[in-house]
Design brief:
single chain, alpha+beta, 6-stranded mixed beta sheet, 4-stranded antiparallel beta sheet, 18 strands, 14% strand
């Protein structure tokens, strides 16, 4: 959706526009149900035709059956009974048709929404990390809730009702012409005045309905953010400020929703009352014309207005005016649905993460000194590198990573890393030390290709990582982050997240390696204990241990530990460190830590400051140099 322009002095919301082609794209999702849509159209036409036929039949019923009976001493009611049975059959056809198309629309509605949600979620999984770093999670969630719910109402109610109303208006208009051209012209003039009123209401209401969807997404985003950070809110006594912020956003939603509701809710009463006014005027004009026996022009020729004709015409006038009100009422719902659809398609049109890599990671086995690709997991990996001449090269995965003069910034004008050159030999443990914001985590983000570098090169086993397919690259990396994410499911399922085909025994072995087995067995159902709410029933340290076990079961050749033990107490850290040391054996490991005790046994320690590597060497070498690392180690200078 286009960005909003500044509001006008009148206080009206800024003009907003749908994403071009929104309606066309929405209809394309319904195209797979074209056979059922054709049936819906047929049933709608039958329903409208039944309504028009029953109104026309009123003239015949009154003029040909009821009035003649009034002058008979012993009236024969058999013909009247047959006529009533006939009109009853017409009403039944209309009723069944109405039920049928509404029932079919439920299937179309749910099928369409399922496809929309599937495509939206599938595309969301392809978006780069940058998208989630720059968009509020609550607003993203709003696409799956409020926006799709607005679509549901439009597909199941608004679209069919609008189509039904249009068909009813057309059939009623033709039927009125059949009865009386004179009175139809009077109704048409009144309808023109009515449409002017409707246009004014809809024009003012549509912009508020669009703004309502945007404000709803903003409120959801804020609620999700505050709910997630409730502990921080309470620790810093930020409740009142949070309430004020929420009140501001909720007030904006309240105003847009109130304005939308105000215009939306007055539509039917205004049109309904104008319809009653037309009914009265038609009764007066038609009655006077009938009494005066004025000539009446109809599609059937010249005739006089009868009581039956006037009653049928009055009934048709209601069938003509009421649907106009329904169309205008449902138009607001369609506007809101299109606003939701526009937001959904905006997400779908976000650029997917680009991947031009062609080097893949495969399982191999060694036969006669040659690497042979195989499907089964062998714990021996190789990079499969196809060449333009059709030949294929297999490079054993060693876990060597090198940076050459790498520059990077999350924003072009604000570089985070400057001229970074480093190397990690296979099986080496490399530690990054530095103040917050020095660029430690950014380096690991570049190894993962969560972000791509602006300048320089990164090579993995002498292969430019831009040539490696991202999924294969990330499959070769095990990551333990400072912020742990656990998912709803058993402890075993959460550990198995690192390797979906891992057996229970492999998961338990990984937990033992991470020293998580002890506390897991003390849980109510052990490894089958169901975790909910991101593992809220566990301590931060226990959650971190499960995260380490998840990385262990993946058994990757390269490990990245980003503040992995920062949430664990010193005593537990010593226990975990032993398990992690076992986990690190034979692997290239990158460690980010504030606690220098966790990096002392690293092969290489790199000290970062303002995006540059200012010192590198082993613990003993850096202490001997008495530089920044020495100051940190001796406490003369502390990490911020």
């Amino acid at each position: 959706m286009d960005k909003m322009k500044k509001g006008s002095k009148s206080g009206r919301p800024p003009v907003q526009h749908f994403k071009p082609g929104t309606l066309k794209r929405l209809l394309s999702y319904m195209a797979k149900f074209r056979v059922r849509l054709i049936l819906v159209i047929i049933f709608i036409i039958l329903s409208a035709a039944a309504g028009a036929a029953s109104a026309l039949f009123m003239r015949e019923l009154i003029d040909s059956y009821i009035l003649p009976l009034l002058s008979q001493t012993n009236p024969d009611l058999s013909d009247l009974a047959n006529a009533i049975f006939t009109i009853g059959s017409v009403y039944l056809v209309g009723l069944l048709s109405n039920y049928a198309y509404n029932r079919i629309m439920v299937d179309i509605e749910q099928g369409t929404l399922k496809k929309v949600r599937d495509d939206m979620f599938r595309h969301m999984q392809s978006l780069p990390i940058k998208y989630f770093d720059t968009h509020a999670h609550g607003d993203v969630m709003s696409h799956y809730t409020n926006d799709t719910d607005a679509l549901r109402q439009a597909i199941s109610q608004s679209f069919p009702q609008m189509l039904s109303s249009i068909v009813t208006v057309v059939s009623a208009f033709v039927s009125m012409l059949y009865l009386s051209v004179n009175l139809t012209l009077f109704v048409a003039f009144f309808a023109f005045l009515l449409m002017v009123v409707v246009k004014y209401i809809v024009t003012h209401s549509s912009r508020f309905f669009i703004k309502q969807q945007v404000d709803l997404g903003t409120v959801n985003a804020f609620v999700e953010e505050i709910s997630h950070g409730q502990k921080v809110v309470k620790v810093f006594c930020h409740e009142e400020e949070a309430k004020k912020d929420f009140d501001e956003k909720n007030e904006a939603l309240c105003q847009s929703a109130t304005a939308a509701g105000k215009y939306g809710n007055i539509t039917m009463p205004v049109i309904g009352n104008l319809g009653y006014l037309l009914y009265v005027l038609l009764a007066i004009v038609g009655g006077a014309a009938g009494i005066a026996e004025m000539p009446n022009l109809s599609l059937a020729g010249m005739n006089t207005l009868t009581i039956g004709t006037i009653i049928s015409f009055l009934t048709l006038s209601r069938s003509f005016i009421n649907p106009i009100g329904q169309i205008s009422m449902q138009f607001n719902m369609v506007i809101m649905a299109l606003a939701g659809a526009s937001r959904i398609f905006e997400l779908m049109d976000e650029k997917s993460e680009e991947d031009e890599g062609y080097v893949t990671l495969v399982n191999v086995k060694e036969e006669n000194g040659k690497l042979i690709e195989c499907e089964k997991r062998t714990h021996l990996w190789a990079w499969k590198h196809p060449h333009s001449d059709g030949s294929i090269t297999y490079t054993p995965l060693r876990g060597e990573i090198r940076f050459y003069d790498v520059d990077f910034g999350y924003k072009e004008d604000k570089p985070v890393l400057k001229n970074i050159t480093l190397y990690a030999h296979p099986g080496e443990k490399v530690a990054f030390v530095g103040a917050t914001g020095a660029g430690k985590t950014t380096i690991t983000n570049l190894i993962n290709r969560f972000y791509d570098i602006a300048d320089g090169k990164i090579r993995y086993d002498d292969i430019n990582i831009n040539k490696i397919r991202k999924n294969d690259l990330r499959r070769s990396l095990g990551i333990v982050l400072q912020d742990v994410n656990l998912f709803t499911g058993t402890v075993l399922d959460n550990i198995r997240y690192g390797k979906l085909d891992a057996t229970d025994e492999e998961c338990i072995a990984a937990a033992k390696l991470a020293n998580a087995d002890g506390f897991i067995r003390m849980l109510p159902d052990g490894y089958q204990t169901v975790l909910e709410g991101d593992g809220s029933g566990l301590s931060q340290g226990q959650r971190q241990l499960i995260s380490i076990a998840r990385a262990a079961v993946a058994d990757p050749p390269v490990m990245i530990l980003d503040e992995a033990t920062s949430s664990i107490d010193t005593r537990t850290e010593a226990i975990v460190q032993k398990g992690m040391d076992a986990l690190m054996k034979g692997r290239t490991v990158f460690v980010i830590a504030h606690r220098l005790s966790t990096v002392q046994n690293s092969d290489v320690i790199m000290v970062l400051e303002h995006g540059r590597i200012i010192e590198r060497g082993s613990h003993d070498q850096l202490v001997a140099e008495k530089g920044k690392y020495y100051q940190l180690y001796t406490g003369a200078f502390e990490l911020e």
